[in-house]
């Protein structure tokens, strides 16, 4: 007994001498980075969060914030507020330091940066195998660069955070825009050395070529044009990459063209469709979700055509008022017409009738009235003059089918026997709550790689080679080739509208180039009236400045907190 007593006493003394260990918290019933980022599966789950955060930032956050990447540019305006000229189209109202949309895009983008830092910091002491570590590090570095690319494009210089934040901080200072781009260049250069080629990764995963594409843009921002041309050429010349020039994919037997095939459901991923043009595709499996929440660009971009009523005299001379249209699958479902293309996007950039991107399969400019109860049944809504009975703001304008078309059969209306309901013209009628996109979404495509290289050539005043790259993209679309005499940065921006409309983050492109103000004044009928020169950069959110009490987080010129 005496020996047992002395042993217990010794244990008590030794434990009491190490109070720090005794008081150390060991979370046993909750998940923390300390006990979750251990195995390869843990780290892969954390990387999957980066993909999900990106999808949320680009396509799934609340409508106003999501559309700040497109509203107030040469691409589109907020049609729901057209006549009131209210906040959505007023830079003096929305582009202010207290705007919630500005704050949320800042925070959502920094969430990607912070998640990347968390993974990178925890990876240093992990027990993963060397090849496993490389793959996780390569993707995480890419996403950190991707986040900083958006922040630098929109806000200019921002706080540069490269480590996991483990305690509250209120002492952030801004690095310069150039320093942010330099860090993105460093991250992407290492990422490229770690990532696998595009033909070796699963659909939707970041590849070496996707990282090279993004690095090319960063190098252009740094005015390192020769390096940009070199890295972008590596993407273009990779044997697994090519523009799609012939019809392909899931709807090859249906009417269409190669440009419309790019946006048919199931045609975005390389493994399922043979699409060699896709560089980075965000995956979306709508059947895994209980509702249609998700990428609601079709609902926002599609005009509110389902609410159009027309009045027509019948054969007796009696005036009959009916809806003009059914809700048909081929047009994209129930639109509300909030994000309307500018006249420049819908009409001004289309200079020839051979361009497939402007074919009726890709931009619908007229429809046959398909309501059998209307005396005007079968007539053309625009060509036969019925468009004069409705408002062309929000209610009717060209349909961009790359975003709105091709709804899966699970959302078709069925009769009692389970057969699809069709209009008299053979188009499927869809259920009323069809509002989302039901396909995977491009983030990067090879066509943009060519246009980025053209931009780099223009940076060197090499108009001949810039024109050559633009013409490669135009030739695929069967558009007339352009002469070097008309090619400049504005022509390039127009070509990006033709090729990448509602696909690129147009606000990021224009802010990066310092062209937001100029293009708004030229082409946006609403925001062009209120935009000021300092709006080429967004304001630093006031709440971030106010809470940063131990250092000065400077505001961009022109803004007052």
What share of residues are in beta strands? 5-15%
Structural class: mainly alpha
Return the string of H and E elements. Answer: HHHHHEHHHHHHHHEHEEEHEEHEHHHHHH
Can you tell me the residue ranges where pLDDT is under 50 for at least 5 consecutive residues?
1-17
The neighbouring-strand order within the major sheet is 1-5
Helix content: 40-55%
| Topology, number of strands | 8
Net shape: globular
Using only C-alpha atoms, the radius of gyration works out to 27 Å
- Distance N terminus to C terminus? 75 Å
* Major sheet description: 2 strands, antiparallel
Question: Overall mean pLDDT score?
Answer: 90
Tally of DSSP helical segments:
22
């Amino acid at each position: 007994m005496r020996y047992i007593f002395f042993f217990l006493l010794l244990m008590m003394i030794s434990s009491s001498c190490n109070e720090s260990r005794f008081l150390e918290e060991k979370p046993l019933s909750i998940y923390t980075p300390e006990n979750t980022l251990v195995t390869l599966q843990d780290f892969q789950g954390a990387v999957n969060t980066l993909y999900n955060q990106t999808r949320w930032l680009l396509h799934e956050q609340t409508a106003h914030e999501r559309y700040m990447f497109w509203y107030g540019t040469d691409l589109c305006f907020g049609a729901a507020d057209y006549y009131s000229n209210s906040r959505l189209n007023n830079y003096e109202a929305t582009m202010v330091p207290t705007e919630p949309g500005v704050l949320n895009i800042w925070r959502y983008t920094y969430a990607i940066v912070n998640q990347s830092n968390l993974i990178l910091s925890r990876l240093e002491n992990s027990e993963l195998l060397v090849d496993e570590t490389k793959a996780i590090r390569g993707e995480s570095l890419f996403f950190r660069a991707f986040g900083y690319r958006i922040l630098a494009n929109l806000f200019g210089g921002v706080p540069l955070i490269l480590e996991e934040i483990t305690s509250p901080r209120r002492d952030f200072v801004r690095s310069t825009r150039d320093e942010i781009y330099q860090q993105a260049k460093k991250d992407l250069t290492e990422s490229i050395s770690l990532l696998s080629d595009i033909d070796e990764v699963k659909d939707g995963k970041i590849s070496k070529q996707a990282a090279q594409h993004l690095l090319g843009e960063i190098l252009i921002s740094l005015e390192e044009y020769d390096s940009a041309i070199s890295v972008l050429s590596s993407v273009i010349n990779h044997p697994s990459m090519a523009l799609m020039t012939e019809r392909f994919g899931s709807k090859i037997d249906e009417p269409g063209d190669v440009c419309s095939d790019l946006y048919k459901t199931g045609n975005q991923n390389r493994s399922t469709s043979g699409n060699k043009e896709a560089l980075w595709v965000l995956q979306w499996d709508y059947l895994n979700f209980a509702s249609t929440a998700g990428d609601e660009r079709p609902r926002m971009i599609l005009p509110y055509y389902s609410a159009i009523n027309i009045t027509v005299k019948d054969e007796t001379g009696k005036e009959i008022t009916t809806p003009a249209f059914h809700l048909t699958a081929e047009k994209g479902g129930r639109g509300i017409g909030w994000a309307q293309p500018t006249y420049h996007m819908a009409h001004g950039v289309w200079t020839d009738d051979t361009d497939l991107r402007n074919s009726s399969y890709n931009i619908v400019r007229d429809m046959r009235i398909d309501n059998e109860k209307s005396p005007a049944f079968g007539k053309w809504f625009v060509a036969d003059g019925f468009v004069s009975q409705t408002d062309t703001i929000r209610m009717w304008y060209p349909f961009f089918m790359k975003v709105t078309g091709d709804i899966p059969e699970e959302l078709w209306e069925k009769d009692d026997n389970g057969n699809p309901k069709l209009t008299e013209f053979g188009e499927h009628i869809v259920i009323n709550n069809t509002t989302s996109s039901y396909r995977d979404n491009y983030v990067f495509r090879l066509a943009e790689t060519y246009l980025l290289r053209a931009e780099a050539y223009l940076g060197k005043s090499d108009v001949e080679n810039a024109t050559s790259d633009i013409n490669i993209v135009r030739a695929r679309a069967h558009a007339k080739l352009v002469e070097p005499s008309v090619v400049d940065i504005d022509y390039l921006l127009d070509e990006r509208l033709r090729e990448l409309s509602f696909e690129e983050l147009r606000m990021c492109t224009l802010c990066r180039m310092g062209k937001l103000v100029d293009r708004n004044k030229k082409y946006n009928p609403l925001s062009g009236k209120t935009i000021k020169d300092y709006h080429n950069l967004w304001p630093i959110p006031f709440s971030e400045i106010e809470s940063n009490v131990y250092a000065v987080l400077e505001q961009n010129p022109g803004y007052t907190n």
